[in-house]
Amino acid sequence: MKNVLQSIAITVIAIFAVFTFACDDGGGGKSDNGISFNMVIVPGGITFPTGTTDGDTATVTFEYLIGETEVTWALWNTVRLWAIENGYTFANDGQMGSGSGTAKTHPVTMINWRDAMVWCNALTEWHNATKGTSYTCVYCTDGSYETPLRASTNDAVDTPLVSGQEDQPYIRGLLENNIDMEHCTGSGFRLPTFNEWELAARYIADLNEDDDIADAGEYYPGSHASGSDAVHDETAGGSDLDLDGDIEYSADVAVFNTDSTSTVKSRSPNALGLHDMSGNVREWCFDWSIDYPGSRFFRGGFYNDTNSMYLRVGTYGPWSPYMYGSSVGLRIARRNLN
């Protein structure tokens, strides 16, 4: 496994350089307070193993971009304040990380799923206004996609769901009245889907360029933290890199078992160059939970998890879209339509 990963590392360096270059004019930006955000391309058309035991598979059809880091408080608040001046309302202001010693470079917390979704629309409009782009908002209140969703609440979930409202927005598509993310044609920022998040957490490289999940080393196993070459129960310590250059411990890639969030990018990235896919804060995903009706998914583990099993890339949890806490933030995504 170590030798395989060493050969993969060479491949990924070349791939990541292309991804980074591609993001310069398509997905990155810079906030007014100097906090940058970058996005990395994740290939589509891939079927990959899922779950903590790799017992199932999922498919991501389209290529997409995902945030290199979790959204920081600095970026969140810059966009939120601009958005409020431009007709947006948020149920929760958000918080600068959590615990002791927090800073603006820590991930935002204390936001519900609706806040995160609406903020993605705000980021789209902010980016257009300040960077001259012409991205289209993904989440809309009308089936013709003329009005972006610009408000979130802490109210109970509508039963039954009402299309165009905060728990079932229209999603910009080729045909009117679309509510299926699979048919999204919006070029703006949004939350990653459940499967997009897991693919980004797992992807290493397609060594034979044949999409064969049986190829050893293509994906981090579901029992590993994202970026780690060891299963979660072998992660009592944390030792940076071992002598062979492989990342052996969850503590090297994830902020966990501590009393505070950390600055994003404080740990080693995974093979795609993504930081904190495991640990620091959990991250909202777009999808409804099938097993827990009325709940959306979060993924990724968080800083106060004492057991590294919660950092596994196959792990997930449900939470109501109006709930918020110090353990949950977000990471942005968008379709790669450029």
Give structural attributes.
single chain; alpha+beta; four-stranded mixed sheet; 15 strands; 15% strand; disordered N terminus
Element layout with pairings:
Layout: H1 2-23, E1 29-30, E2 36-37, E3 39-42, E4 46-50, E5 56-60, E6 64-67, H2 73-84, E7 95-96, E8 108-109, H3 113-131, E9 139-140, E10 170-171, H4 194-202, H5 250-253, E11 282-288, E12 296-299, E13 316-319, E14 328-329, E15 333-335
Parallel strand pairs: 11-14
Antiparallel strand pairs: 1-2, 3-6, 4-5, 6-15, 7-8, 9-10, 11-12, 12-13
Helix pairs in contact: 2-3
Strand percentage lies at 5-15%
Radius of gyration: 19 Å
Question: Order of SSEs, N→C?
Answer: HEEEEEEHEEHEEHHEEEEE
- The global form is globular
Briefly summarize what is shown.
The protein contains five helices and 15 strands. It is of the alpha+beta class and 338 residues long.
How would you describe what is shown here?
The protein is an alpha+beta fold and 338 residues long. The chain has helices spanning 2-23, 73-84, 113-131, 194-202, 250-253, and strands spanning 29-30, 36-37, 39-42, 46-50, 56-60, 64-67, 95-96, 108-109, 139-140, 170-171, 282-288, 296-299, 316-319, 328-329, 333-335. A hairpin with a 5-residue loop joins strand 1 (29-30) and strand 2. Helix 2 (73-84) packs across helix 3. It starts with a helix and ends with a strand. Mean pLDDT is 85; it is low at 1-34, 213-217 and 234-246.
